[in-house]
Amino acid sequence: QVQLVESGGGLVQPGGSLRLSCAASGFWFGIRGMGWYRQAPGKQRELVATITNGGTTNYQDSVKGRFTISRDNAKNTVYLQMNSLKPEDTAVYYCNAWALSGAEYWGEGTLVTVSS
Known about the structure:
mainly beta, globular, 7-stranded mixed beta sheet, 57% strand, 11 strands
């Protein structure tokens, strides 16, 4: 089993920045990539950004140029640097890891609120 623990959420004003962290522990063998998803009130969960073990990244169009995903393999930690935040970025952000077997793992989420 893989455990994922997110941190770094909070309240920020429009135009501000936050950095989310996701620390992974447990049986890490077979994990091929990690990512961030988000779910706003009344909406479906959506992909924000992903990064493979090889460093290939993928972003949702609405966050390109504003968000950056990165990882520290030595610490089994993935980060999401969020700049120029907008009210529509308000959501619960979830960390995700996926394995070659098809298994997926999720954190419990961290709330990001963008409001003046």
